[in-house]
Specification:
alpha+beta; Glucose Permease (Domain IIA); ten-stranded antiparallel sheet; two-stranded antiparallel sheet
């Protein structure tokens, strides 16, 4: 009985010590946790403050950039528009001046009537004469037919000059006369130049007397026997007239 009484106080003491150790351990854990939490909270506060500061700086930079663009870009665009408008205006003025000069020159110099004269447009002799009152023989075609033009011989590549001043009213290519240019000489008179190549003109161009209309081409199949030639036709109000009546002697 004495033995058991002695062991009981010892057991109570042991339990009290264990409880104290546990409490101390819990206290240590609580203190460590609190310290860690405080450090974490401070770090988070520091990071949030830094993030807010960076956000403020970025917002400020964007605001400044937007303000700069609002001031500079519209001004640059305005200047570009003004420069383009000025350039277009200058080009338009130059084009108008050129057109006015061309029109003035055309109106002043394009004139042809019954008393006007034509210069020879090609270097060779007449191979087939104008003939609208009776038929003439075409060697290549081996037949007689009316001829509303002069067929003038020459050399391939020779320069064909305008017999009189005129304005280009038509450029076309036909099977019979190849590349063909028509010049309006005024007062209903027109000159037709056929069997050409390398024509340096466009419709509406003014051509002075003697200026190049084109170059003599190889003959079409309708004039292969006659050889290289210029098809030269003179019209009055759309009707053929004899070019020889206007040729310089």
């Amino acid at each position: 009985m004495n033995k058991n009484n002695n062991e009981k106080p010892f057991s109570l003491k042991g339990k009290g010590a264990a409880v104290g150790i546990v409490i101390c351990f819990v206290a240590v854990i609580v203190m460590v946790g609190a310290y860690t939490f405080n450090n974490y909270e401070k770090k988070m506060d520091a990071q949030l403050a830094k993030a807010e500061e960076e956000t403020d700086e970025l917002t400020k930079e964007k605001s400044e950039a937007t303000t700069t663009n609002d001031i500079v870009l519209p001004e640059a665009e305005g200047n570009t528009s003004t420069e383009n408008d000025t350039e277009d205006s200058e080009n338009s003025t130059q084009d108008d001046a050129a057109a006015d000069a061309n029109t003035a020159g055309s109106a002043a110099e394009v004139y042809f009537d019954a008393n006007s004269l034509l210069t020879w447009p090609a270097s060779g002799a007449v191979l087939i004469n104008y003939s609208m009152d009776q038929t003439v023989y075409f060697s290549t075609l081996e037949q007689y037919k009316y001829n509303p033009a002069l067929v003038i011989g020459g050399e391939v590549g020779e320069v064909i000059g305008a017999s009189a001043a005129g304005i280009v009213s038509n450029i076309e290519q036909t099977a019979q006369t190849g590349i063909t240019v028509t010049l309006d000489m005024g007062n209903g008179y027109s000159a037709v130049y056929g069997q050409l190549k390398e024509v340096p003109l466009e419709i509406g161009d003014y051509v002075a007397a003697g200026e190049t209309v084109g170059y003599m081409s190889e003959p079409t199949k309708y004039y292969s026997v006659e050889g290289p030639n210029l098809y030269f036709e003179l019209l009055k109000d759309g009707n053929p007239v004899n070019p020889m009546d206007f040729m310089e002697s």
